[in-house]
Amino acid sequence: SQKIEQNSEALNIQEGKTATLTCNYTNYSPAYLQWYRQDPGRGPVFLLLIRENEKEKRKERLKVTFDTTLKQSLFHITASQPADSATYLCALGKDSSYKLIFGSGTRLLVRP
Amino acid sequence: DGGITQSPKYLFRKEGQNVTLSCEQNLNHDAMYWYRQDPGQGLRLIYYSQIVNDFQKGDIAEGYSVSREKKESFPLTVTSAQKNPTAFYLCASSIEGTERQPQHFGDGTRLSIL
Questions:
Q1: B23 touches A: beta carbon within 8 Å
Q2: Between B34 and which of A45, B5, B38, B46 could a Cys-Cys bridge form, CB atoms 3.0 to 4.6 Å apart?
Q3: What residues does B7 pair with on adjacent strands?
Q4: According to the model, what pLDDT value does residue B18 have?
């Protein structure tokens, strides 16, 4: 069955550094991948969507890459700030289906 | 402001009791979803609806029921048949289209057993 993996251990970095989060998947061929941010006790908030024919997508301090050969997406936050501290979820999907497959998320902690 | 409203924020269920979680959206989205989130696990799809008066089971529909009588509303009932209902429940909506669009989430309802 399809499986999506995100690092379950929290990522702890210093303010100003670049945070890099990983999303790996197996037994699935997604048409696109999405990244969401979730704060404690809140619902996820959409950040970026990247499609299978795109290698990289940027939005302000955020950058996402998508390597369908490695079956991996990397999510980067440059010049990280304490306000970036949250859990980040990746999700895979296909245009032919409403179903999104979510990873369990990686918690990011940015120290001042 | 447009968005999704879930209520209540906290809900307690007694043994053998059915409870209903509310989800309302004013984004004019056609598609709506219910997810369950447990610690250390990804969101799991319970039910989804593409249009009014139509809905489909997700991966973990057993012990749950839904209705979609209005475009804006997609309530979820957790029945007594759901033996492990304690979780964080999230409602979402999205625009209908040939390419899947991002989902907009509410702020969830946390359900616990008394």
A1: no
A2: B46
A3: B22
A4: 94
Q: At A103, is the secondary structure helix, strand, or coil?
A: coil
Q: Enumerate domains of chain A plus CATH numbers.
A: 3-111 (2.60.40.10)
Which residue's structure tokens are 């957790």? B78
Q: Bridge partners of B91? A: B34
Please name the residue of chain A whose CA is at the shortest distance from the CA of residue B48.
A98
Cα separation, A84 vs A75, whole angstroms:
13
DSSP string, A35-74: EEEE-TTS--EEEEEEETT-SEEEETTEEEEEETTTTEEE
Contact A112, A82 (CB under 8 A): yes
> Which pLDDT tens digit goes with each residue over A2-21?
789 998 889 999 999 999 99
